[in-house]
């Protein structure tokens, strides 16, 4: 696991964008794994600028998002499908037909989750997976206690995660209780994993991710089992590392 401590979030965005730009330069049809939430936003901003200045193109790239809320009506501004479109893929030359997300409202959720797994595999797997980390150590929405071998499925959010995400909604009551998320086993199949964490509220989770035992109690610690993980931190998120 490679740990990079950077002075600010803009640098986190630049370093991550360097990796994505160089991947696409060698493989224009690469498969990106996209996360939502605040952590990847500096990466998406930087990629948007590079697209505008002509240094990177997503015209042939494919993307799979990590997770989706269950129960939000289609088109709801906080549906992750909408968020990823507004924050990133609509701002660059991504073909909307090449951007996929798990179905949060499918009638047969189990089959929809299996179909999502198959779609990732049919695309050749994820070349580069962007991740954030929850304050409780989740990646995707694999909350503490998730099996290290889990695949795409429904999960219940912890109250801590619902409170953390309430900032995106008008009230805590509006934050869905369930999500569909890629499993830890799914995420670990990506060729390269790039996790971004900034801010003091992530410091404890980052310590468990990097220095803790591999344990379902901190799902992100499963990344210690992966041969190619880059963790991009600011000073505050790195402040509890020994
Ligand atoms: C979002 C996701 C989550 C977030 C995590 C951190 O698609 O998978 O694991 O990455 O909750 O969220 P932020 O970055 O908003 O602190």
Structure characterization notes:
The protein is an alpha/beta fold and 242 residues long. It has a single domain (2-234), classed as Rossmann fold. 30% of the residues lie in helices and 17% in strands. The chain contains 7 helices and 10 strands. The protein has helices at 9-26, 41-52, 80-87, 109-122, 159-165, 184-187, 203-211, and strands spanning 2-6, 31-34, 62-65, 67-69, 99-100, 128-131, 153-156, 178-181, 192-197, 229-234. The strands form 2 sheets. Strands 1-10-9-6-2-3-5 form a 7-stranded parallel β-sheet, covered by helices on one side. A 3-stranded antiparallel β-sheet has the order 4-8-7. The chain is globular, with a radius of gyration of 17 Å. The model has no long low-confidence stretch (mean pLDDT 97). The structure holds fructose -6-phosphate. The site of fructose -6-phosphate has 14 residues, from loops. Residues 35-39, 66-67, 132-134, 138-141 line the site of fructose -6-phosphate (F6R).
Label this structure with key terms.
242 residues, Rossmann fold, 3-stranded antiparallel sheet, 10 strands, alpha/beta, binds fructose -6-phosphate, single chain
How are the SSEs ordered, and which strands pair?
Layout: E1 2-6, H1 9-26, E2 31-34, H2 41-52, E3 62-65, E4 67-69, H3 80-87, E5 99-100, H4 109-122, E6 128-131, E7 153-156, H5 159-165, E8 178-181, H6 184-187, E9 192-197, H7 203-211, E10 229-234
Helix pairs in contact: 1-2
Bound molecules: fructose -6-phosphate.
């Amino acid at each position: 696991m490679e740990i990079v401590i950077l002075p600010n979030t803009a640098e986190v965005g630049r370093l991550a964008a360097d990796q994505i730009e160089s991947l696409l330069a060698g493989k224009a049809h690469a498969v990106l794994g996209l996360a939502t939430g605040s952590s990847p936003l500096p990466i998406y901003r930087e990629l948007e600028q590079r697209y505008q200045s002509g240094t990177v193109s997503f015209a042939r790239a494919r993307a799979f998002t990590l997770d989706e809320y269950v129960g939000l009506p289609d088109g709801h501004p906080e549906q992750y499908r909408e968020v990823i479109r507004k924050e990133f893929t609509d701002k660059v030359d991504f073909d909307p037909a090449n951007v996929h997300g798990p179905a949060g409202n499918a009638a047969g959720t189990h089959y929809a989750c299996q179909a999502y797994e198959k779609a990732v595999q049919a695309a050749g797997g994820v070349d580069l997976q962007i991740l954030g980390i929850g304050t409780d150590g989740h990646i995707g929405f694999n909350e503490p206690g998730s099996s290290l071998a889990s695949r795409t499925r429904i999960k219940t959010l912890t109250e801590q995660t619902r409170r953390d995400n309430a900032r995106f909604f008008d009230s805590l009551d509006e934050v869905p209780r369930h999500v569909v998320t890629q499993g830890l086993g799914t995420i670990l199949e990506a060729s390269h994993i790039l996790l971004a964490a900034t801010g003091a509220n992530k410091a404890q989770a980052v310590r468990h991710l990097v220095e803790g035992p591999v344990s379902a109690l901190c799902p992100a610690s499963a990344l210690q089992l992966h041969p190619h993980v880059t963790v991009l931190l600011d000073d505050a998120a790195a402040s509890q590392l020994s």
